[in-house]
Amino acid sequence: MSQPRPPRLVVMDVDSTLITQEVVELLAAHAGSQDEVREITERAMRGELDFTESLRARVATLAGLPVSVFAEVLDEVVVTPGAVELLAELDRRGWPVGLVSGGFVEVVAPLAERLGITRFHANALEVEHGALTGRVAGEVVDRAVKARTLREYAAAAGIPLDRTIAIGDGANDLDMLAAAAFGIAFNAKPVVCEQADAVVRDRLDAVLDLPPFR
Question: Is 205 an annotated catalytic residue?
Fold first, then answer.
């Protein structure tokens, strides 16, 4: 009888990977700054803008939004086709899953809870008097922090880096994809597809056909 394979750690980006949208754009729609924010997001994901600067510029347009907007945006989030199926299969195998997002913990945390994911890390938005200030609170989750978070998840789970898999779509994910033993570009920008070990489109559970999962 064959021995069960040791588990691998799977770490995923959230915006445009685990979900089909960019949360900052959903928030911007409530602030009336969606077009401006979408343009900045596209340039950042293509690697044309520094992520931290672009994030601060996008968040600045959200100043004055009430904190009640988070519940509204959570209701608008669409989970990527195949994501639920992928998570179910990883759970069946006993493979740990982590999320690391350049988006916002105010949406990522309840989303993770809904999907049964306990490991997550994302930016926090500063709030004063029940409204967004237009500033990020604390350290920005940039590409270096994403790679560091993957290594921290692996250490905490007791899984060596050579058994880690990362999935992402934008330039902010490049360090994380490089840090993992196997990096997957999902519905990704060209700069990411060029540097990833594999490219997957449309359904997230299509990654199950790739070598690390077989």
Answer: no
Query: What pTM was estimated for this model as a whole?
Result: 0.96
Backbone phi and psi for residue 159, each to the nearest 5 degrees, phi listed first: -115, 125
**The one catalytic residue among 15, 173, 175, 205:** 15
Terminal Cα distance for the chain, rounded: 18
Distance CA 120, CA 112 (A): 7
Of 13, 169, 173, 175, the catalytic one is 13
Annotation says 13 is catalytic: yes
pLDDT tens per residue, the chain (214 residues)? 456 789 999 999 999 999 999 999 999 999 999 999 999 988 887 888 888 999 999 999 999 999 999 999 999 999 999 999 999 999 999 999 999 999 999 999 999 999 999 999 999 999 999 999 999 999 999 999 999 999 999 999 999 999 999 999 999 999 999 999 999 999 999 999 999 999 999 999 999 999 999 9
